[in-house]
């Protein structure tokens, strides 16, 4: 976010970063599939950040990745690494779903309101989009405030991880019962496409379970992008000196 010389990563270093993003994203998705509860996802995020923050940044979410690099003004300079990170997040999310399916016998469903039935019966695209957008905005903005040296309230990594995890938990508790609490394009893409394939394998028409796929991808991405622009052009310039 501040003007600085960006590190040039070797291919090996990029692959290590992607591996940590793969693991962290898988942890988040596992938490959702095993419990469908915000508490498990929040604690998994807390552990994931502590595990990988000093290696990959502990993002586990394309919206967060876009927000961080856009706020730093280095998005285009790091586009190849960003694409690798997002790909690893998507692959990690699929791994988490597959692992949960293997253990539980069925995947969870990401839908508004009532799990699988909400995909088919609930017509609230505007409401879901706004909730996913604003909750992702606040979540990403919290992260940006923690990683920017001028705005972070503490340099303690545990406190930073806890504040980010509790913010996600608060957003899930705020919107999860209505929107499903996605806030993550990788999670939205993988969970939705997997549940479509699962329902097709059960002899039902799976495509109807993908009605909110576009919302779960674009609303968090726009929320993350908006938070980075707000941070860069509104928040930072107006800090008290």
UniProtKB/TrEMBL annotation:
InterPro entries in the record: Aquaporin-like, Aquaporin_transptr, MIP
Keyword tags: Membrane, Repeat, Transmembrane, Transmembrane helix, Transport
Q: What is its main location?
A: membrane
Q: Where in the cell is it found?
A: Endomembrane system
Topological relation to the membrane, as annotated? Multi-pass membrane protein
UniProt GO MF annotations: water channel activity
Asked if the Swiss-Prot or TrEMBL record annotates the protein with the keyword Ribosomal protein, the reply is no
UniProt cross-references to Pfam families, sorted A to Z: MIP
Q: Which GO terms describe its biological process?
A: one-carbon compound transport
Q: Which family does it belong to?
A: Belongs to the MIP/aquaporin (TC 1.A.8) family.
For this entry, the protein name equals: Mip family channel protein
């Amino acid at each position: 976010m501040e003007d600085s010389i960006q590190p040039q990563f070797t291919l090996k270093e990029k692959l290590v970063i992607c591996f940590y993003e793969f693991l962290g994203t898988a942890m988040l998705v596992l938490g959702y599939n095993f419990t469908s509860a915000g508490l498990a996802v929040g604690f998994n995020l807390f552990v994931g950040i502590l595990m990988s923050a000093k290696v990959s940044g502990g993002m586990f979410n394309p919206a967060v990745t876009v927000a961080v690099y856009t706020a730093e003004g280095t998005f285009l300079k790091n586009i190849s690494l960003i694409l690798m990170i997002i790909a690893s997040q998507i692959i990690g999310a699929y791994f988490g779903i597959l692992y949960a399916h293997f253990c539980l016998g069925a995947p969870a469903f990401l839908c508004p309101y009532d799990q699988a039935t909400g995909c088919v019966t609930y017509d609230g695209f505007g409401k879901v989009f706004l909730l996913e957008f604003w909750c992702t905005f606040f979540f990403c903005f919290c992260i940006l405030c923690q990683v920017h040296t001028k705005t972070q309230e503490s340099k303690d990594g545990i406190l930073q991880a806890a504040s980010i995890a509790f913010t996600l938990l608060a957003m899930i508790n705020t919107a999860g019962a209505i929107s499903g609490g996605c806030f993550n394009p990788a999670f939205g893409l993988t969970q939705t496409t997997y549940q479509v394939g699962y329902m097709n394998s059960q002899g039902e028409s799976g495509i109807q379970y993908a009605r909110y796929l576009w919302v779960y991808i674009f609303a968090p991405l726009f929320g993350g992008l908006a938070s980075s622009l707000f941070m860069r052009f509104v928040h930072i310039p107006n800090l008290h000196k």
